[in-house]
Write a structure and sequence with these properties.
Elements lengths: L7 H9 L3 H23 L5 H15 L9 H20 L3 H13 L3 H15 L3 H12 L4 H8 L3 H22 L2
Helix pairs in contact: 1-2, 2-3, 3-4, 4-5, 7-9, 8-9
GO molecular function, one term: sigma factor activity
Keywords: DNA-binding, Sigma factor, Transcription, Transcription regulation
Protein name: RNA polymerase, sigma-24 subunit, ECF subfamily
Length: about 180
């Protein structure tokens, strides 16, 4: 059984610190992700590999601008999205078709929700188990405080206090990552 692959953000942080093996692993993983990303948007377009290489070069040139306190996926996919938009502008003569395709790309961006889910999971992982469970059941699953109170044996007031503190802790972590 092999060890799991490290997350992309961990590889990027290691690469920024000078770890060449981590950088090679990062570029290899990103290349595969980019091929899939561009192929879903362009089909069998021959320019997919060119876009992959252009994006990897852009990532290499901008790697020092990545802030380890911010989500890597958002930074990475923003670069890929800009490269795709530049490609569409360069290859389409009809400006309205480019605008339509760019709108389609923006509307069909499944990476942002996936990144948000990962970020939410990281924030939840930083909470004590009881607080994590309360946030999940009340804020994510939509159960009422009364339902959670009955199931947990805690008073509704205690549930609200734990929920408030958990959300405040998560908000503080988000605020600190943006500074």
């Amino acid at each position: 059984m092999s060890a799991p692959n490290p997350p992309l953000d961990a590889l990027m942080i290691a690469a920024q610190a000078g770890d060449e093996a981590a950088y090679r692993a990062l570029l290899k993983a990103l290349a595969a992700t980019l091929r899939s990303y561009f192929a879903r948007r362009l089909g069998r377009d021959a320019s997919v590999e060119d876009l992959v290489q252009d994006t990897l070069i852009a990532i290499h040139e901008r790697r020092a601008t990545y802030d380890p306190q911010r989500p890597f996926a958002a930074w990475f996919f923003a670069i890929a999205r800009y490269k795709l938009i530049d490609h569409l502008r360069a290859t389409h003569r009809n400006a309205s078709s480019v605008v339509d395709e760019i709108d389609d790309i923006a509307g069909a961006d499944e990476e942002a929700p996936a990144s948000a889910r990962l970020d939410l999971e990281r924030l939840l992982d930083g909470l004590p188990q009881r607080s994590r469970d309360i946030v999940r059941t009340v804020k994510i699953e939509g159960q009422s405080v009364a339902e959670v109170s009955l199931r947990s044996g805690l008073s509704p007031t205690a549930i609200r206090v734990l929920l408030h503190r958990a959300v405040k802790t998560m908000s503080a972590k988000v605020g600190n990552s943006r500074q």
